[in-house]
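Q: Hi! First time doing this. I have a protein sequence and I read that you can turn it into a structure. Is that right? Here it is:
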Amino acid sequence: MVNRVILIGNLGRDPEVRRLENGAVVAKFPIATNENYKDRNGEWQSQTEWHDIVVWRTLAERAESTLKKGMGVYVEGKLTHRSWQDQDGNNRYTTEVVASYFRIISGGKRDETAGGSGGYFPAPGDEVSTSSQDMNSDNGGAASSMPEESGSGAADDDLPF
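A: Yes, that's right. Below is the predicted 3D structure, encoded as structure tokens:
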């Protein structure tokens, strides 16, 4: 099973950071992604989707010190759903992306100012969560965002769709 989300968008506001009683740090921030398409009349339309992002511990501290409203950001994580009761006893639901990695990118343009890989993808020196390191322990702990190719050429046969 796979639960992986990759988003590239712009921060809607500065991260909201909280320090919990147990010492854990959590940061929340929204990012906006845009989709452009032509409508029936042939005119370009833009649709914006907002995504709630949550980061924990050292990633939250890094978000607090580096992320600002309007910045472009690449985010990797997993989709989660939570439910709770509000003060009036109403059931509330939310969907969030719990991020395991983020990287600041330039305003959507591929240039080298945001890092060695053009700002979009993890670079060898970037911080990687421990869960990513555990999954990549076979290659010496180096995280890779690309699957390794097998020599058999049967990789396309493994696709679930």
